[in-house]
User: What shape does this take?
Amino acid sequence: MAASVETMPDAPKTMRDIHAPVHASVAGVTRIFPAVGEQPPVHALGPLDLDLVKGEFFAVVGPSGCGKSTLLEVLAGLSAPTEGSVTFEGQPVSGQVPDGVGVVFQEDASFPWLTVWDNVAFGLRRAGFDASEITRRVDYAVGFMGLADFAQAYPAQLSGGMRQRVCIARTLVLQPRLILLDEPFGALDQQTRLLMGDELLRLWRETGATVLLITHALDEAAMLSDRVGAMSARPGRFIELVETGWPRERDSRIVSEDSFGRLTGHLWSLLREESMKASGHQMGRQK
Amino acid sequence: MSAVALDKPANATLRRWTDFFLLIAGLVVVWYLLHLWAGEVALTSPYETVAKLIDLLGQAWFWPHVGETLLALFYSLLIASIGGLGLGTLLGIHRLSGQVAEPILVALYALPKITLYPLILLIFGLGLSAKVAFGAIHGIIPVTIFALNAVRNIKPVYLKTARVMRLTPLQAMRTVWVPAALPEIVSGQRIGFALTLLGVLLGEMFASQQGLGFLIINAIGLNDVPVIMALALLLALFAVAVSSALLALDRKLHQRS
Amino acid sequence: MSKVGWIRLAIVLGSVGLLEILCQSGVIRPLTMIPPSRMAVELWKLGASGKLAPPVTKTLGNVAAAFILSVVFGFIAGLLIHALPRFRRALDPLLASYYAVPFFVFYPVLIVIFGMSDLPIIIIGFLFGVVAMIINTLNGLDRVPTVLLKVGRMNRMSALQTAALIKLPSAAPYLFTGVKLAVAYSFIGVIASEFILSGSGIGYDIAYAYNNFDNRTMYALMLFILTTVTALNMALYIWEQRMLKRRQGGR
Assistant: This one.
């Protein structure tokens, strides 16, 4: 089941550097969760192949429960694939998160017992940076994410969107070369999501990092990424890899362009049937 | 693959019981090693303790003491569980009272109530009522605190749903309030049971001429280690049996919600 | 202070006042209870005579030792038990019924083993306190969000670092409950042991005063215990509320 790389009929030519080297790759990966109690084993993912090109912005969309988050965890080294191999910068990924990979989770992962500033400094302190370097990087990241006025506040005093910025800043200060985002804006309202999307694009351009974004929002995937991987219902595989063809300099205003509408429409036509399969599957599971 | 899935539940239950008995066996081994280390005078061996307990259970004079303790426990539990449930429910419904009362209850919970035993004796004199009072003051506070929180923490949306469906207060009570609060209430009753039993035994130790607690304090006075150990074993078996049943119920209710 | 706080204070003071009136008017006979104001005076006198310090030092010292042992061992044991889910499942019914077994019945056994020293009393206090700490540590660890542990793995932290820097602070509210209960149970264990058989300490002095119909000393000592424990608890409560307020945004 090879994924076909197809360009949108009327989309502009791709602006992504297709000759850039492969940065991270997943080959023949499957993930099967063993049986627990009365539950039979669950084949969550794959077999699946994916090459992430250095510096690209890749989004994964798919029906709920299709294994999107499992893919991210496997890629991050947070969980081991049942079969297949994962490599990052040419090194096999196994057992632990490689240096240079940062993850932002869907759930609020800010530490409620630390101030915003200390939250952002957490990873740097673990990595043993000296105090002046920590101060420099944290101050910059806190400013970059618009958190300067709240540096000494505790996460509980902030809104959900602000807390997610804290988590992004905490990942950012470690200067990851591969950033994995698992529905980071899932809990936010639509306007906040668009603005956070702009900031994510700005961050991606400034850092030059490779980004993999998991999302359930088709418009978010279409707006932010260079390529969108549309996944099937469980066990998740790529049905199609869609090139968006956006220029590197872009922001949320592209949602008003015609090609944006066609792109989301195309994604939905790919996923409609799969989503129906997934929700029917889930209803069948509930007794 | 389906055959494996079918086997699973039976295996899991079996394994849980095996684990439990392995743990008990481990505790018995530790007990035996302690016995070897401390010597016969200090700590009787598991075998001798069981033998002593069986011997006690065969004596006619022993059973009235058991009956006395169970009777005192019954009355105390009645006061602690029903009184605590009623008080906790009222405090949970009336928000301001609940806010006022909660820290006071928590402070009372933390008091070493054993300090009060002379006061209880001076009020009730020696006998059943003093024991019941002692058991009840130990048990009623945790039951009240849990019931208070159970009622107060019912999600407002459930109560709104009840109003949207225009349930009568009685219907709402039966179909929404009770099922929503039940898991926490059972947790409270579980902890209430353990502390009520402790309170009754303490009461018997200091304020009675009857009951298992009295037999224990008597044995302590005579330094009769086999009897102390046998009675402690009996009480532990009883406490674990009742608590496990309540814990199983507790788990089932919490799983559901 | 908030309205709720004022009402609470009024209720507490009202109860003490009522007790005072009932005692003063003779509704509660002086043989049963002396008025609270009298208790305070007697406690003051006892303190001034120098008779209070030795039993207080003894009892509080033993409670402190039992408490510290309970908290430290309880947390470590909680961490270990949490890491062994099968063991924990088997242990759960025992933990749940633990407090129904009056452990100070083993006091004489401990005296035979360790002799007539403070050690048996401290062990009883420890046996009472440690399980409250274990249970609440387990409760707290159960509620550490998995995503925070993933952050730990992302930063390639060792098991020890994760325990100290993520699990401990995340479970802190529950650990605090455990600490508060460990204080209460250490007091219960120590004082109960002193009541049963011991030659010193506040529990012993209360029992001694009771047996000699010395109500004034007895109530003065009871007042001392009750106010000390309550004051200690209030201090912990205020500290806890401040921590929770910070973490829950003043809700």
Summary: Residues 79 and 136 of chain B are 6 Å apart (CA to CA).
